[in-house]
Amino acid sequence: MAEQKDPKMSKKDLEYFESLLLEKRREIVAAQVGSSSSGAFHTQKHQMDMVGYSNHLTADAASDYTSLETSFDLAAREGKYLIYLEEALQRIKQETFGVCKVCKKLIPKARLEAVPTATKCVNCKEETKRKEREDHRIEMARAFAEQHRMQQK
Ligand SMILES: [Zn+2]
């Protein structure tokens, strides 16, 4: 068997990354608790955001809205990363963890150690980024041309 059709990580590696992911998750949860204790007022708001965003939309603390929004953004970012971690843990269970979802090759372990939530190898990620940049450039050129034409009038 010179060629593996369906590459996957060894059990040992999967276990290793599972503990790494669980460790990361613990860190985030600990960081959330840590930031809460720094300010009692902020804590309540922050926890409210965590429980349900709709809560403070109906609350009439409108003047406080901007700061609330900032802490929500932060919570959302942390929450999103937690979701990525959960998804990665899910992939470990399905034994698809560490396999690039584009080219189906194994992602180098060094990369996974740096970014355990990665779903693409560096090559495929770069390729995606390059395409996105190109799209963005075309979009910008179009917008610029549009603006230029309006100024000519
Ligand atoms: Zn790939």
Description:
By secondary structure, the protein is mainly α. It folds into 2 domains: 109 residues, Up-down Bundle (Four Helix Bundle (Hemerythrin (Met), subunit A)); 33 residues. It is 73% helix and 0% strand. The chain contains 6 helices and no strands. Helix 1 packs antiparallel against helix 4. The longest helix has 31 residues. The protein is flat. About 10% of the residues have low confidence. The structure holds zinc ion (ZN). Zinc ion (ZN) binds next to helix 6.
Provide a quick synopsis of the model:
With 153 residues, the protein is mainly alpha-helical. The chain is built from 6 helices and no strands. The chain folds into 2 domains: 11-119, DksA, coiled-coil domain (Four Helix Bundle (Hemerythrin (Met), subunit A), Up-down Bundle); 121-153.
Which properties best describe this structure?
153 residues, mainly alpha, Four Helix Bundle (Hemerythrin (Met), subunit A), 2 domains, 6 helices, flat, binds zinc ion
